[in-house]
Amino acid sequence: MNYEQTKFRCIKTNKRPFILTFTIIIVVFWIIGYSNSISVFFVRSCVGMCVVYSLLKGIQEKDLMNPYIYFSLTPLSLLLYNENISNWYFNELTISTWGLGVINFFAFLLALSLTNKKNKNHFTAQTFNRSSNRILVQHSWILFFLGEFSFVYSFILHRPFFMSNILSYFVFPAIALAWKSRNKTTIISMYLFVGFTFIYSFNKTILLSYILITAISYKKYFAKNKHQTKRLYIGLTIAGLFFLFVAFPMKALIQEQNNFSLQLLLESIKSYFRNSNGEFQGDIIWNAHPILRMPYMYLVSAWNNVQYIMETQSNLTYGLWFFKPLISWLQFDHLFYKEYELIPYSNFNTFTYVTVLYKDFGIVGSAFGSCFLGFFVGIIYNRFKISNSAFDVAIYAIVSQATLEMFFSNHFFMLSYPFTIVIICKVYKNLFSLSREF
Known about the structure:
single chain, 438 residues, mainly alpha, two-stranded antiparallel sheet, 17 helices, 2 strands, disordered N terminus
């Protein structure tokens, strides 16, 4: 290949990120364009820059399943907020609400960027001898038994098991170890049992956890080329469509019906897609396809609740939310029951992560919490990039979910995860004296 051919090839290759970058910027600032005042336009532009920065940083990473891509949903949810959608569910956001979002977005992204180290090569899949594979499988089954014991206990005795929420997170390092061992019998057996648990009790949040641990483990230990990686991303797209087409209708079905059946599910899905003159409960004016109605409400309604909290429940809790995981571990959380109560504006009761940071530290002080989370997520991500440990894969998968859902949830400040999985993985590895790369 001569110089001219090489030069042409480089120019052709470099066009792709340029076109993608240009497209992202155009779309984001097209969304910003319908601002009704200069001040709102300014803060919306700041939010838009956070969206652009997150996406551009995310596509520069070797793995698209990274914290920048996950977090981009949070500023995007605020950017897409439009009070004209409903005269009941949405109020016009104040500058204080926009400012709270901007301060925390910048703080999180700054801390994440400072923590995220460059020139870190992802570990490639490694081969193991029979002896090491046997040990991987053994520990995988031990962890899986610990994780599913509470389900079996409640299934047989019809009562919850002590610390069931904590024990259930042993399932994720178990699945990561199974993928690392490449033992097909173990992998298939575990997923069959997990499928049975979903028949007994379906939960969207847990389903997302299994999707992420599966995708991240597959990418870490199986995907050797771009073709396999492309198949993975296609699978994730299908999973996303499943959430839109099936998970939302199934959630409504489970809430409204005592008994589950395939016929009821099909009827629920059919009803979900039926366009009833663009109305939902008589309050939401919706002219687009009804499939987008509920995802949009879940995506943006948390910000209406943020503003409602700021206006009606502005008393600060001075770190009670920030230290809630520790307080819960010590079994003292019941002493602060009233302080941990958040009253939503409507029956859409989701709260973005900045809500509890505002309750703890106010508008400006909330940036401290976002910085902490940015550093924490960055450290976990860095460790995942350079490690071949199945435990690091499991930890990153759960932290990924918490980051992905920051736009409508405060999972970082709950007992169940993601700090809990860091603790139980560390305890298990020390208990069995497992090597750092196990």
